Amino acid sequence: MFKILSGIFILSGITGVISLLLAIFNFIKLDRIKGIKMLKFTGISIIILCLSALGANEFLPESYKVSQEESPNEKHEEKPVAKVESTKDATWQGKVKEVASFNSTPSKKFDTIEAYAKKYPATKAEIKEFEDYIVAEYKNKKYLADVQNNEYMLGNIFKAYVVNRYYGEEETPINDFVFGFYQNSNYTFKGLESINSNAIKYNERQMDKALTAIEN
Length: 216
What we know:
Blueprint: H1 2-28, H2 32-58, H3 62-68, H4 92-100, H5 106-119, H6 124-139, H7 150-167, H8 173-189, H9 198-215
Helix pairs in contact: 1-2, 4-5, 4-7, 5-7, 6-7, 6-8, 7-8, 8-9
């Protein structure tokens, strides 16, 4: 069937072209009647041409159709869009755990977590949560009990830095207290001071004064 329709398609195409040429020729000779007849034949040929083309397409071999379409294997795969991880996408707890697991010195871990804390978009609720936590850890004497615990110490440093950054240069009891907490955590974690050094004890005396002001 496909071959028959293809033959009709070719024949009607040739007939249409001849009819059109004859129509033009008759119009040139000023034989309008014959020219119009030839145009009618041309129109009929075009209609047959279109119908045979549509019919041939229905009987077109499947292998040919597939070759004309884009093969599934050749389709352009959409490249996955790289997800840009914002500071909000990852939890600070996850970041602290990640940095704590690094095979690097305490100083480098400290620098990494501080750089993260500088950009962390803390909410007011988190600031209050961090403040309450810092006060509680100091009062129960736990905050310097295990300075070798990377995850715990980095978490404390992160929280203290975020709170201090929130208050900036504002001189308030809570800001002074948290700054002392931050310094002592920083120095002991990096091994710059022992937990019983004069510098650490001095900071704790200042923290005690600030704590009294906070609670009164």
